[in-house]
Amino acid sequence: MNFETVVFYVFAALTVFAALRVITARNPVHAVLFLVLAFISSAGIWMLLEAEFLAITLVLVYVGAVMVLFLFVVMMLDINLARLREGFWSWLPFGATLAGLMVLEMIWVLGSYEVAEVDRVRTVVKHAADYSNTKELGRLIYTDYVYPFEIAAVLLLVAMVAAIALTLRRRKDAKSQVVSEQIAVQSKDRVRVVSMPSEPRS
Amino acid sequence: MMLQALELAGQGFFGALWLPLWTIVKIMCIVLPIMGAVAYLTLAERKVIGYMQIRIGPNRVGYFGLLQPIADGLKLFMKEIIIPTGSSKFLFVFAPIMALAPALAAWAVMPFAEGVVLANVNAGLLYLLAMTSLGVYGIIIAGWASNSKYAFLGAVRSAAQIVSYEIAMGFALVTVLMVSQSMNLSDIVHGQQGNLGLLNWYVIPLFPMFLVYVISGVAETNRAPFDMAEGESEIVAGFHVEYSGMAFALFFLAEYANMILIAFLTSIMFLGGWLSPLPFLPDSFIWLLGKVSFILFLFLWFRATFPRYRYDQLMRLGWKVFIPITIIWVIVVAVWMQTSLWVW
Fold it and tell me: pTM here?
């Protein structure tokens, strides 16, 4: 067992542990932090695969931005654990069936003949230190896969606009300031200098 | 020459253990000077702001107060760390570590001079962005784990602020990527090399981005006038209100290490790193230090000059001013680069 394998198993064990704690942690904030740990350790595994762009982007986008907002929301919520837990047993068969189906699907895809064949044929090629994973990915995205990429981008944009449109409420009583007016203000609009004669000493 | 001889001797003596040992030595060579710089940056800050406000600043401990940072450090070191009741104990202790670790880890890819870099990785810029985006966890966890309203308000403010300004910062870096065509920090500096010295630097074509980057950097490090996370007149001291002793000192270290990091990054990406401003002078680390000191002075100058932003003004500046400017400048640069007018 070489060093790389050891690192892989450490990251894999961490990922599995963190993922388990996400669903078993009592405190929702702890659960979110374990999810962050799971993301970081899977980024480590991707790094071992020499996919440095994907690994760093996972940390940058999911850990650095998405999970921060997630944490932000979870911290503000007043979550009642007892209510969250009730009905656990009645929903268990349904959940277990779904989980079983997903495991079956994964076995089906990952254990299929094609995947095994690809694994057997394509030995992992070690690249030189100056090989840029980012450049390679960018070239593929903007040449061979340009249409799927653009469609995905448009879909995300539509989703974003829809999310904002759905949650936008124009409150009548909300107070706001007109920034251009604030900036255009001059001292003579706000300050009035009153000249007063000094009162005589008594 | 001596370094090579040392490496050979070390490899012979330690065998496989040599690489980790040698790397730790190199890491120490980066981290210890940063710690020293952080200590003396606090003194510089107090002195600079003092003179700007017509005061003298610390001058009792050592000549010109030169031993003041050491006295401060010692004092913080001796103090008790109080863990509030009702706090989440593990996270409370973990938060300062989480604040400092990314601030130091980011230095791994920083080039200090030609070939002087710990890890010369291709995705260096991305790595830096990822590391700086992790720093916010220290603040959020600290605010939540303290079980205090003030600390929590500070954490929430800081999270929203950092996430907003990161976007503008990221776009500013995208323009640098476009013109340098590389994410390797050493290559970005090489891209600014030329016969004209100062005029070859990216600050000339990317001047709006330079401004956006510096101002977002101030916001990212929670410095005045963007120090909403602390806001001592509104929420006491924000996220670190419950911290004392070394735990507090770690937050302090993280903030100043981040300031120095942003100053280094600005110098490397916009001001030509270690390249000399005049073509007939030799390139050297001294230039980089000079540029970094200038940016750090700006940080202190801002703090002495501007009053704190109101929160809605802060958000407006981030979302409605900086992000549109950066997006437009990305397009302008992309078009500009296709024409013959592009000379960088």
Answer: 0.84
